[in-house]
Design brief:
Helices cover 49% and strands 0% of the residues. By secondary structure, it is mainly alpha-helical.
Length: 71
């Protein structure tokens, strides 16, 4: 129960290789994520002013929306 099987060691080795192996894959992934976040923030900032708030006056009711007169 406390022993690692060959599958556990293989998966652990793959994770370690992915994080620390090669030419800084983790730093490359984090750099790409940071660029994406920066582009998203720049997209949220716009030079055009926000639209005016809707008017507080209700719209006039049409004939079909009016309450019928009950006598």
């Amino acid at each position: 129960m406390g022993s690692f099987s060959p599958w556990h060691l293989l998966i652990l080795g793959a994770i370690v290789l992915f994080l620390f192996g090669g030419s800084g894959k983790l730093s490359g992934l984090m750099g790409d994520a940071a660029k994406g976040i920066r582009a998203f923030r720049d997209g949220l900032k716009s030079d055009e002013p926000p639209p005016p708030p809707p008017s507080s006056q209700p719209l006039p009711r049409t004939e079909s929306e009016k309450d019928p007169i009950v006598r």
